[in-house]
TrEMBL record:
Pfam family, one: BcrAD_BadFG
Chain ranges of the ATPase BadF/BadG/BcrA/BcrD type domain: 7-257
Protein name from the UniProt record: ATPase
InterPro entries xrefs: ATPase_BadF, ATPase_NBD, Euk-type_GlcNAc_Kinase
Species this chain originates from: Shewanella electrica
UniProt-listed PANTHER family: N-ACETYL-D-GLUCOSAMINE KINASE
Length: 292
């Protein structure tokens, strides 16, 4: 093959995205597949990575067999845990070369156009990451319910706590409580507990918009939840600043919502993300493999 192909993979708990480029930065093709977090299902993760990569190749006009000529960086959720990193390392992958790193690492590179920096991520979960002078710092990312404070799942979980306290007569009835109950279609503590017993993080996260809307309407309990989350994010930003990164970005599905709750002194330090995580993965692939 006369082309040097570089592939970036962004693999998370709900989907896997692939980006295929030439060495000069020309985008050739993209692909998408299912979940790629080995903590949840390693075989599914392997299949999703290969499927997204094949889609990117085929969309670029190549054959799926050309995977063996691809230099790939796999940025995956879960591989910050050594057990799952080693699981990926042992995988008989289809690529010419591959490098494994965390989804946070490639998201940080993407946010800063392929360069070092720091990020705070607020989506269903939350975490923070810095890469400065070749040294990496990971904060949070411990997963719900152990961590993920200020993430969508945490917002929903805190809201359910308010509703249960209201049913117990510890807090007054409010439009916020009514809206949470209406969203979940429950009318009692027993209804709510029964419904939430099998909730996954994504189920809790469906309540995040209700919390955000109630806080905007100045509901006392919703405001308290949002302020608690914002205080936590402010602490993360403070820790990242200790690393002296050139840029910090807040990214993720709730990023813009949280910006409204951060003090002006913090907002003035934050820069808009420049590119996607899979772009960051491709940039790293070029750094790792271009010379070889």
């Amino acid at each position: 093959m006369k082309y040097e192909l570089y592939l970036g993979i962004d693999g998370g708990g709900s989907k896997c995205k692939a980006r295929l480029e030439l060495a000069n930065g020309e985008l050739l093709g993209e692909g998408i597949a299912g979940p790629a977090n080995p903590v949840h299902d390693a075989e599914l993760a392997f299949d999703s990575i290969a499927s997204a990569a094949r889609d990117a190749l085929i969309n670029a006009g190549f054959s799926a067999n050309d995977l063996s000529q691809v230099h790939a960086v796999l940025g995956l959720a879960g591989v910050n845990i050594p057990q799952y990193y080693h699981l990926l390392e042992a995988w008989q992958h289809p690529f010419k070369q591959r490098f494994i790193t965390t989804d946070l690492h490639i998201a940080c590179l993407g946010a800063h156009g392929g360069h070092e920096g720091a990020i705070v991520i607020t989506g269903t979960g939350s975490s923070a990451f810095a890469s400065v002078a070749g040294k990496q710092l990971l904060l949070g990312g411990h997963g719900f319910p152990l961590g993920d404070k200020a993430g969508g799942a945490w917002l929903g979980w805190r809201a359910i706590g308010v509703v249960l306290d209201t049913f117990d007569g510890l807090l007054p009835q409010s439009a916020f409580v009514h809206d949470i109950c209406s969203s979940l279609q429950v009318a009692s503590a027993d209804d709510l507990v029964t419904k939430a017993l099998r909730f996954l993080p994504k189920d809790y996260a469906t309540l995040a918009p209700v919390v955000i809307k109630a806080a905007a309407a100045q509901d006392v309990q919703a405001v308290a939840i949002m302020q608690e989350g914002a205080d936590y994010l402010q602490q993360l930003i403070g820790r990242l600043l200790e690393q002296q990164p050139e840029r910090i970005s807040v990214i993720g599905g709730l990023a813009n919502r949280w910006l409204e709750w951060l003090p002006d002194s913090s907002k003035s330090l934050l820069k808009s993300p420049l590119c996607s995580p899979e772009y960051g993965a491709v940039a790293l692939a070029k750094q790792m493999f271009k010379e070889s």
